[in-house]
Amino acid sequence: MKILREIKNKAEKILNHQGFQRYAKNTGWMFAEQILRLIAGLFVGIWIARYLGPEKFGIFSYALAFTSIFAGIAKLGLDGIVVRDLVSEPDRRDVYLGTAFWLKLVGAILTLGIIGAATLFTSNDAITNRYIFIIAGGIIFQSFEVIDFYFQSKVLSKFVSICKMTQLFLSSLLKIYFVITGADLFWFVLVSLIDQLTISVSLYFAYRYQRLPSFYRYFNFEIAKRLLKDSWPLIFSSLVISIYMRIDQVMIKEMLGEREVGLYSSAVRLSEVWYFLPMIITNSLFPAIVNAKKVSEELYYRRLQRLYTLMVWMAIGISLPVTFLSDWIIKFLYGVAYIEASKVLVIHIWAGVFVFLGVAFSKYLLNENLNKKSFYRTVLGVTANVILNLIYIPKYGISGAAIATLLAQVITNYVYDLFDKELYFQLKLKTLAIINPMSIK
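Structure (tokenized):
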């Protein structure tokens, strides 16, 4: 009873804190948007998978995966860095946003060229490559993500969430219409491009609704150099992350075929649908973590410990029921045609524990300006993933790819710390989060 009273008192103290309430409202909007996206994914995305069947769905998933591998390059690793600088120097808003916008636009154009060159080294037919280029066209519109950075820095995610909900509504209507009318795969691919256009236009109108000047009129060469200097490790890190998040689907297509990609992708989508949770929580709390360091190191690390613990046990709470209900989940959502995906789901869902932990850890590395370490650990992870895929896919098929993903996440987000003395304390915090969650004060 004494323990329960202590927990209750701590909870009441936290809930009544003004700062907590502000961040809770901000997080609430992001949660609302992502819950709607989760529902749309279950009812619309799965409906599309059932409609297309494993083979066509595999082609669609492969095109998305192939594009996603390179899409991270266009972001130039600027996301967290620009938010950090906007929090630190809010009076330089316009020049930061404008500079980041033009950098991201140039990065998008270069990325399209890289994607075009990469397709030459695949066994894709002309139609598959056409789908890849249509989806890749949306990368140009990602330049408007800088508006999201501004709202993050002001803890005003309400506006971004409304924009994304608008995009989600229009996208879902189009997909439902195409399923009902028996449309070809081409039209579902086209929606991916329309989604990027819709969200960029919505974000721009939300920004101007704040009666703020047009940021694209600004560019500062010195700031651009500094941003790129800070972000270059993150550019490669983002590319490497994309590779080991999606290389499995590309390798499955080359080694097994489109149908197997469809089966594997159906399980991965159910596993990764939860990944919005760590992104929302860490993005919302990042300003608070930055400010905590200004107060004291003790407060800073205490908040990190809480974040790690929350990430780990939230992921475990998701993984356990999915593990025992995987067969039923696949049959109910996708149908008997996808039943082979249940074995993949049982394995792949546990990668989420280390993905959740890794998202929080990445924020620590960013705040400490340890971007090179972020790059090194990610390189280790992708190298391990590719090697493990080459070993396990021939032996165990699509289940082997799931095993490779799980082991790669463990290596990247936990094992790496064993080989870096500067991260021993972080390893301790992570271990406490896993084995002793009640150690938080």
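Residues 18-75 form the longest helix (58 residues). The mean pLDDT is 81.
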